[in-house]
């Protein structure tokens, strides 16, 4: 079994280091192959996603990804910016289904930005489409009729793109509370009208799953009013990006939310995928030992479960994380003072 480890920029290497320690401690006989990505790869090799890195990723059973993003690179041409590495991997490897689970951890209810009794009910999975939408449409700058410079980004979804992500959401719901809330902006956008039409059609194949449709502005409101309402949230690339960061603060911190990005490709042991925390490179705290590594450790657990068929090992990691949090091992983002490596140590101890 081979994992490609792509630590990236900022806190990416710090949080990845802790997740790798956890995987190594389980002694599963996994081969780790490290490769540069993001701003670090641009600085060393002139490209955020070097061909060699893509090759390492393609030759693996799964990818463990830290984060990319470097303020030094924000003025580069867009195709050379660090963020293109993650967008490029998702697209090149057809990782179209991004699962972002959000559930409250026992004992952390008071760390939520919401009232504890509201936070206590959170248990959802955001199923975010990852290969389409305004992210991958035609974009550019042009001069308009008034002679002004304007920027544009085309938003679109095709029927088959919506169908395949909708099936993922319904199947995910079948393993949970059997409710899907599809989030769109069909009252304004044709992209969303197509989205809604297709989701309604796909839903007919899942009579055992309840489907509702919600506009994204209302969904943002309901997410803080009554997050316990949601089981599976099915949404597009842009809305899913935004709602998942919001959901993280309902849980307590962006440092707690893991993700799996999956496609249709099967490996010997499961589904090929890329696993990463939902947060970015956090340049404001990078290099200070303040980053919360739990989201990345939990991403490693998802990797073992979905790509390597090692569900018992994944369960053990998740239990160790929950136990460490319940024991009050908290980094600064959660109001504590545990440092990144101390949190890794605490998880290892409980393993
Ligand atoms: P961010 O998620 O990096 O940080 C937002 C805030 O949350 C910051 O205050 C940061 O300190 C805090 N934070 C994030 N992760 C944390 C953790 N593990 N522990 C403690 N605190 C944490 O978002 P941003 O500041 O908007 O973006 C910074 C860079 O990261 C940008 O270049 C952006 O493009 C990139 N980014 C990359 C990814 C990715 O690699 N998948 C995701 C999001 C943002
Ligand atoms: C995420 C990030 C990325 C996204 C950026 C860095 C391209 O915000 O993984 O949530 O928008 O998908
Ligand atoms: Mn994001």
Offer a concise description of the structure.
The chain is α/β, with parallel strands linked by helices. It has helices at residues 12-25, 39-45, 51-58, 83-92, 116-119, 159-174, 190-203, 216-225, 237-251, 294-306, 311-326, 340-350; strands at 2-8, 31-34, 62-67, 97-103, 123-129, 139-143, 149-153, 179-184, 210-215, 232-235, 258-266, 271-277. It folds into 2 domains: 1-95 and 257-351, 3-Layer(aba) Sandwich (Isopropylmalate Dehydrogenase), CATH 3.40.718; 109-251, Isopropylmalate Dehydrogenase.
Secondary-structure blueprint:
Layout: E1 2-8, H1 12-25, E2 31-34, H2 39-45, H3 51-58, E3 62-67, H4 83-92, E4 97-103, H5 116-119, E5 123-129, E6 139-143, E7 149-153, H6 159-174, E8 179-184, H7 190-203, E9 210-215, H8 216-225, E10 232-235, H9 237-251, E11 258-266, E12 271-277, H10 294-306, H11 311-326, H12 340-350
Parallel strand pairs: 1-2, 1-3, 3-12, 5-10, 8-9, 8-10
Antiparallel strand pairs: 4-5, 4-11, 6-7, 11-12
Helix pairs in contact: 1-10, 1-12, 6-7, 8-9, 10-11, 11-12
The structure holds nicotinamide-adenine-dinucleotide, 3-isopropylmalic acid (IPM) and manganese (II) ion (MN).
Strand content: 15-25%
Low-confidence runs? none
Helix-strand makeup class = alpha/beta
Give every kind of bound small molecule, once each: nicotinamide-adenine-dinucleotide, 3-isopropylmalic acid, manganese (II) ion
Distance between the termini: 21 Å
Helix content: 25-40%
Number of strands: 12
Provide an overview of this structure.
It is built from twelve helices and twelve strands. By secondary structure, it is α/β, with parallel strands linked by helices. It folds into two domains: 1-95 and 257-351, Isopropylmalate Dehydrogenase, CATH 3.40.718; 109-251, 3-Layer(aba) Sandwich (Isopropylmalate Dehydrogenase). The strands form two sheets. The protein has a ten-stranded mixed beta sheet, sandwiched between helices. It starts with a strand and ends with a helix. Manganese (II) ion (MN) is lined by residues 241, 245.
């Amino acid at each position: 079994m081979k994992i490609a480890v792509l630590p990236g920029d900022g806190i990416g290497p710090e949080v990845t280091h802790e997740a790798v320690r956890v995987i190594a401690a389980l002694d599963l006989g996994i081969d780790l192959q490290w490769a540069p990505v993001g701003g670090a790869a641009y600085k060393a090799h002139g490209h955020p996603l070097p061909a060699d890195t893509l090759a390492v990723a393609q030759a693996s059973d799964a990818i463990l990804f830290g984060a990319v993003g470097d303020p030094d690179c924000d003025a580069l041409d867009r195709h050379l910016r660090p963020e293109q590495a993650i967008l490029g991997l998702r697209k090149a490897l057809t990782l179209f289904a991004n699962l972002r689970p959000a559930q409250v951890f026992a004992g952390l209810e008071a760390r939520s930005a919401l009232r504890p009794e509201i936070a206590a009910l959170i248990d959802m999975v955001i199923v975010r489409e990852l290969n389409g939408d305004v992210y991958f449409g035609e974009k550019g700058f042009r001069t308009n009729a008034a002679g002004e410079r304007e920027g544009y980004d085309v938003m679109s979804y095709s029927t088959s793109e919506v169908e395949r992500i909708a099936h993922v959401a319904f199947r995910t719901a079948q393993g949970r509370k059997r409710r899907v809330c599809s989030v769109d902006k069909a009252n304004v956008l044709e992209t969303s009208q197509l989205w809604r039409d297709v989701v309604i059609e796909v839903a007919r194949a899942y009579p055992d799953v309840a489907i509702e449709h919600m506009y994204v502005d209302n969904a943002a409101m309901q997410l803080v009013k009554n997050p316990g309402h949601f089981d599976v949230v099915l949404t597009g690339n842009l809305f899913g990006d935004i709602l998942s960061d919001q959901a993280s603060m309902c849980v307590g911190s962006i440092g707690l939310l893991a993700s799996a990005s999956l496609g249709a490709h099967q490996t010997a042991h499961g589904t090929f995928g890329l696993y990463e925390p939902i947060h970015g490179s956090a340049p404001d705290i990078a290099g200070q030992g303040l980053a919360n590594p739990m989201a990345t450790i939990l991403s490693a657990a998802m990797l073992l479960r979905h790509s390597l068929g090692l569900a018992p090992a994944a369960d053990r990691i998740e239990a160790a994380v929950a136990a460490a949090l319940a024991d009050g091992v908290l980094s600064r983002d959660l109001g504590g003072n545990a440092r990144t490596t101390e949190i890794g140590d605490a998880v290892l101890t409980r393993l």
